[in-house]
Records
---
Amino acid sequence: MSEVKPLIGLKWEPKLPCLALESKTGSTSSKVAESGSLWSSKSELVDGLCLPPTDPKKVTKMMRKQIKDTTGSDWFDMPAPTMTPELKRDLQLLKLRHVIDPKQHYKRVVSSSKLGEKYFQVGTVIEPAQEFFQRLTKKNRSTTLADDLVADPNASQYRKVTSIVLFRKCLLYKDA
């Protein structure tokens, strides 16, 4: 009847959810729990700690996952940026820049090269001191290329003219 209660602070046990890996009936559900669970079995744990695998194939696979995705030392280990919708839109605009400004001719980009699509950097333009009075105000600055094209009056005028021309061509083909 006399229970020995440990003093507070002298004994600590982690409160983990109880996993029933072995059932009393010996059903197949225990096998499923062992293979599909996130917890390691007690035989794989050493002093309650998870150890790295001893299989060399598993070790090299884990090491490959830990290496950052970069272009290599020839390109100064430039990392691959995380693709956001804004970055995707800006890359599409750069691919279609010959359509946006028809008077400016650009060299064709080789589409077979996937490096240009995966590895790139986005920077900011620093204006020289001579352009202090001609610079854009904070109100007129845009964060993406798409915002810049929408705000550009020359590009919007070109879009209006081309849309009218295409609309008239469609009407002519419908009537014929």
---
Amino acid sequence: MAQPTGTGIRNFIWTQLVCRFSTPLSLICNNGTAFTSRVIRTLCSENGINLSFASVRHPQSNGQTEASNKNFLNTLKKRLDKIGSSWAEHKRRIKKYYNKHIRRRPFRQGDLVLKLKNTTGRDMTSSKLSSNWEGPFIIRNVLGPNTYKLSRHDGTLLPRTWTGNDIRKFYS
């Protein structure tokens, strides 16, 4: 499909997944307009499919990235075995190096946060000096260790999930 549309994706899901393999329990999609369309949401709700969306800019949710990482680690382990270095020692060094660069942002349900503005499709009237953050929003659900569902003050949920990298604490 050169240009996926909601109807095209619906037909693909029905013919290539449901008709061939049975109804899936869940679908994890990116936040493309074809996947967030009403047609796809209706298909999933009518067939009891849990529709989930991967967080933007969050490579851990990409299965292809995970598979590549697995291949990389297997190759690295073989090389370490050849030179006689301890895998555990090497893993400890790498973990220590990367963990010192990680900033944990523990948010709880009900916290007020700002979210990073969506830079794709932004109107060109905003200047480079305008804020990159918008809000405040309320953390409605904590879905995982670094994944959150946000809502506006009137209670309407935002249409996708957000990671701790895309939000920051709002101080009033």
---
Amino acid sequence: MITTPSMTDDEKKPPIIIICGGIIIGIVVVLISLFLFCRRRRQQQKRMEEIRLSHQNPLNIDEWELTWDNLMIKGEELGSGAFGQVLQGKLLGLEKTKSGKLIEEKEDVAIKILQRYTNELSEKNFLNEIQMMKQINGHKNIVKMIGCITVGDRICLVFEFCPYRDFLQYSKTKQTELVSV
């Protein structure tokens, strides 16, 4: 009978060098990933701080900038979204918008307020939305921007108030008015 040599228990176990090498490679990969994650996070924080400083720099404040003294929040929530909530309010004082329209004292406005505890990406996107609204303001199919507050802790965007909120609400209101006549 021919017998084949069998492996001993020591030969069945992987060498300790392979196990240690695998553990060391795993630790190195985790450390590199952690380093890259922290570096990317620091870069994002630095970019966000630059954006905030550019908005807080008095030289960068433009004619769109309002103060909280100009606004009175009524408290009625008109809607909410990814960045925060939209509240009904009043603009206090006589203001001239970029389009040249005079906003009369105590005119109703919609105030879109960024959430108090939001992440940096949402804040950056909200500030980008404000910049975009400044550029496209005056289009006949877009609600007019009246101003914004970008200096300080609470950032907001102020729009003209639409009493029917959106086209769906407007069409429903008009439909019920026509039916009741």
